[in-house]
Amino acid sequence: MRREIFFIIVSAVLWGTIGIFTKFLIEENIFPLQILFFRLTLSLVFIVPILVIFRKLSKLKIPRTDLKVFLLFGLVIALFQGLTLLSIMFTTVSKAFLLINIHPVFIVILAWLFFKEEIEPLKILSVILGISGVVLIMGLSNIQFLSEAIAGDILAVMTSFFFASYIILAKDLRKKHEWYPTFVYPMMFALIWIIPLFLIVNSLNPQAASFTTNISMNSWLLICGIVLLPTVIAYCLYFEGVKQIPATTVSLLTLLEPISAVLLAFLILKETITYNTIFGGILILLSNYLIIPKRGNRYGRPVRR
Known about the structure:
Elements: H1 2-15, H2 18-27, H3 32-53, H4 67-90, H5 93-100, H6 103-115, H7 121-138, H8 148-176, H9 179-204, H10 217-241, H11 247-253, H12 256-268, H13 275-291
């Protein structure tokens, strides 16, 4: 059990490095959609041989009826990961990761709309805390709607919505399939959805959608870093860890992701963390804690990033 807990902790910390790699890559003129393309493509390049080595390739077989659902997952992942990178480009890493973690608010609302789930008092409190955290972090009392920072904050909130959608959509598939197809197929289909995403982003902000062929050795090292550490290694450790750990423990441990993202941004990027960000982050983390399933695992927390 201790080994599995260690795996979850390491995976959460590794997910927190995404913002660091993204900021450094943007400084190298490698922008969000190109980062997304490399992350999806090279992740598959690394993970498929691992499945072959451990003789898990046969686990990729799925019913044809599930392909449509995986295609939808691919769209959600393309939007989720793409918007994550875009939000990091325009706002600080600490604000982006804290705002992305308001997904419990959207889970409560979507579950009520589509599954007619009762909204209990604790869930209402979770929603209120989450929204209050967003208001504090974004500083809505002194907002400048045309600024890049507020655009990044809004993109982070949109990212949270798509992550919540992924959690709800993944509920039934996680019962039917092991993690291998739920990792590989959505990644493959997400590559298809990059094309319309590129067209939309390019029309709004050409720089964010730009691709370059002049990639330095330092940039390649950073690309390999964002592919291996917070993607391939983090996913493998996470899936190995959740086999033996209760959902409640997993949910609590993965709260280390936004915490590690904020600390790394402060230590490595020298980001200024305001009191509003600190108190807003505390409210958002508390919102997450309140919605953690105390019994059973209604939704759980699937692969994060």
